[in-house]
Design goal:
The protein has 2 helices and no strands. The protein is mainly alpha-helical. The chain has one domain. Keywords: Membrane, Transmembrane, Transmembrane helix.
Length: 76
């Protein structure tokens, strides 16, 4: 008789333990953004003009198609 009574008291603690685990897990997994300070080191950056737009578009399309191929292989 005593074993069933202790099992019932442990079972009644289960929702509280699961709730506390969710709170702790949520606290550990939350992320907050931090603004970066603006750097005023280079006013006219002629040495590094940046990547052309067409290169970025081609890279984006290639990555999207590659992701779709791997998703299809995963499903198959």
């Amino acid at each position: 008789m005593r074993s069933t009574a202790s099992a019932g008291s442990i079972a009644s603690l289960r929702p509280a333990i699961l709730g506390m685990a969710r709170v702790v897990g949520l606290g550990l997994s939350s992320v907050a953004a931090s603004p970066l300070p603006m750097s005023h080191g280079h006013d006219g950056d002629e040495e590094h003009p940046g990547t052309p737009l067409w290169v970025l578009c081609v890279a984006s399309m290639a990555l999207v198609l590659l992701g779709g191929a791997f998703a299809g292989l995963t499903i198959a």
